[in-house]
Protein 1
Amino acid sequence: MELKEIVSDVANALVNIDRSGLAFRGFQKGVGPHGEPQLVKLIATALNHLNKYGNRVRTKRTPDLLIPSEWAIEFKITRPFGDNGKEAENWSVNLLHPYPGNLSTIGDCMKLLNHSGTERRAIIVIGYEHVPAQIDLTPLLESFEAIAANVLGIHLAPRIETRHERLVHPVHQAVRVIGWEVLGRASHSQN
């Protein structure tokens, strides 16, 4: 199974979760406000309903989602705006903080590089935007790629992305699901 297929299946799962009208805690209806652990569990359940996954998808602490003998996947959510429509503080830190042991996507890459399983490793970012985007996520994604490659020597496969619009939430109107296979690390890297 290739990452492109998983990214597409995750995006379809998110659209179905959104259409279900399920609200997360006291937030407005829609998939956008869900927390990462809760959303990854919903994604795993949705994937397990597809025959090709054979009910093997598991949620774990590290990695967030495991397809045994195939993929170890870490997820991150990025939302420039909160449920209330106001710009969120520090929303981009989840992708860019370049230190091990933290909760950023960069830190997740480092965790995946230390994963002892035989699975291929991947990062999937779930990003929410307005339609049209008030804050385009593309510069953030390009910054993540640049920091991973040029600062930490992490080799990522080319970005895979899919986008869906017309989500239920009035702020999180579109979802972008972006994936990278984490291929390894340059041998000369200091970190």
Note: The longest strand covers residues 174-185.
Protein 2
Amino acid sequence: MRAAGLGVNYTSVVSIGAVSGLRSMSGPAIVSKAVRGHRIDLRGTPLAWLGSGSALRTSALLAVGELIADKLPSTPDRLNPASLIIRALSGALCGYAISRRESSNSEKWGSALVGATAALAASLAGSSFRRKTKLPKMAAALAEDAVAMATGAAAIAAIG
């Protein structure tokens, strides 16, 4: 959904922000793949580096590492302050990146704020799900992975 007269797809911004809240490195990896595949155009923007091969490889490696580490009992709580800051920054980066290149600066920064807010909300929702679900811990973690990946794919597909 785009607000009247605006070029930003806020549904996609909220979705990619939520992905970053569930899996902090998956949002940037998904965005980097979309930039590399020319689905998102960041040429001439401060985030053009997301389309580089090294950004894609690094973000994908970090995302896979996080998917694995998330299942380990020694992994810190996602609600600790450092984790929340990383998730919010990831959501902001992704929100800014998927706002249209021709969007105004205020729209881009608004998208960053929306992405960060969605990341924080999804972090809380994911934590609540993990605490309250009757699923075994591994099944809950895998379900959350599936939601994050499907939401990321839908966010990128919805970009017009």
Note: The chain has one domain: 10-157.
Protein 3
Amino acid sequence: MPTPPRSLVDREIHAIGQAFAAIGDAIVRLASAAGSSAGAGKTPAGHGPRPGKKLRLSPARKAALKLQGQYMGYLRNLRPAQKAQVKKLREAKGTKAAIQLAKRLGGV
């Protein structure tokens, strides 16, 4: 005798269970592959500093990074033509002047 068809809810719950099982299997495979290819506790090349190693920046570098962040933040809110104008000014007069123009163009 055939089994009665499952309700929609039962089918969806079953599908979710299968998806979780597949995800669990994939995580196990990734963990074993990562454990065998990379040494334990090592960071792969190009993935940032190792844990515990403090990045030391000079005051000049910190200031340059702060300016770069401000520049990128203001540039994000501009239209393409305005971005081109700000980039051109940055080449000619520097980042501080470009930030001031970007603020003005962005209405800040």
Note: The two ends are 73 Å apart (CA to CA).
